[in-house]
Predict the 3D structure of the following.
Amino acid sequence: MWPTLQKLFRRKIVLLAALLLAAVALAALTAQWLTPYDPNDTAVLQRLKAPSGEHWLGTDELGRDLFSRIAFGGRYSLAIAALTAVGAIVGGSVMGLVAGFFRRLDAPLMRVVDAMMSLPDILLAISLVAILGPSLLNVVLALVLVYTPRVARVVRASTLVVRELLFVEAARAIGISTARILWRHILPNLLSPILVQASFIFAYAILAEAALSFLGVGVPPDIPTWGTMVAGSQQYAHQAIGVVLFPGLAIIVTALSLQLLGDGVRDLLDPRLKKSMS
């Protein structure tokens, strides 16, 4: 385990991304002890204050402490992204395995995937949230449906290769059940592309949630995600740029760190790139 991490973090940019991501996650997890104010406490007389010793990142249009809201908002934003990644990975892996292993089901399942991927991600997400209604759970469900086809295509492509390998043919020949072949022999060989997809979807989901909230069709405004903070404060940016700058930076830093970490994991797990990292 340690030698693998050493190889992964040998590239300084990947190490920096991992440290930034760990700092964001730690701030979100320890928000109740780290932040000096309740994120929902209003103080209208302190509205739109610049960063100071009292309010480290300033205050928003209702006088709420920005640092506290960003820290607590990270919980919601990261939770939405994590649930989206898990849901998309599970659903996409099942769909991809079935499509790649069972030839009769390949064409119909892939036509459904192609139809879903023919629409832009954000447009499909807006349509789904409009149908389901704006809530935290519905945003997660919509994003899971948006990103599941991406995983399904990657898993299907890998399954088509693995199912033709000799050890799978040998397992079939000795009468091992199909379910056991999929679970014990094929799925473990797909973990590398699945892990890479998970890191990318995590980043995409953070950006998508922010975009949905900015457009007014995402999480309800009373839930302090980074996206709802930017959406609710944009009209006050000319008075205090920090109300959109700091939540926006949280989104950018987290998404970029996840992308860079995902690139590092991909390079580490791809046998064609291992030599360049060793």
